[in-house]
Amino acid sequence: MLNFLIFGPPGSGKGTQSVKLAEKFNLVHLSTGDMLRAEIAAKTELGRKMGLIMEKGELVPDEVVIEMIAGRTDRAENVAGFLFDGFPRTVEQTHALEKMLNDRKMKIDSMLVLEVDHEELVKRLAGRAELSGRPDDRDPAVIENRIAVYREKTEPIINYSRERGIYQPVNGMGSIEEIFERLSVFVSKYIN
Ligand code: B4P
Description:
Layout: E1 2-7, H1 14-25, E2 27-31, H2 32-41, H3 45-55, H4 62-69, E3 81-85, H5 91-103, E4 110-115, H6 118-132, H7 135-138, H8 140-154, H9 157-164, E5 167-171, H10 176-188
Helix pairs in contact: 1-10, 2-3, 4-5, 6-8
């Protein structure tokens, strides 16, 4: 089983590209953002609490997402591997993921990092606000906070991935199809 991380700032296209990659390469797509939004939609107590954090553009506590991800890799059969989207987002989450995979005799094989200009991120998220109705896309100040949180808490993971030799930067500017082609080239090195 192979394990890919898709990484990048909010609005870089992680969710958009993950759906396409998972289908093309027979990967299980695990998105912590989607899992959290499902809790909110189901109006659970956890969803109510996490929704208040997400509306402000902050990260939910590490233990919540680690708990959500734990065990997911045990249930998959007949797949080439996993594509983690939006997880890990802190160094602590990275260590938790690595331990979880090591316990199952697996590792992180590649970290695909989408690189997108700041202005383009803001434009995409503001554009999605009109379609998705996501509260964290509606307010420009919240969008800026999400990008700032990414720079402060999530980007340091890039150093970790460089040390591990799994860092794979990918140009995230251009059309969805162009970026998908670029990502596919890297994933194809592991899966035919
Ligand atoms: P996520 O759900 O992970 O979402 P995101 O980072 O905002 O967006 P993504 O990069 O997936 O962008 P997308 O493809 O949708 O996180 C939401 C929140 O959940 C976080 O802020 C946090 O509070 C919480 N959370 C999630 N995981 C967590 C964790 N592990 N720890 C703690 N908290 C966590 O693309 C955005 C828009 O751009 C779309 O409208 C898309 O259509 C458009 N687009 C994409 N590619 C394009 C292109 N090439 N050209 C033009 N438009 C494009």
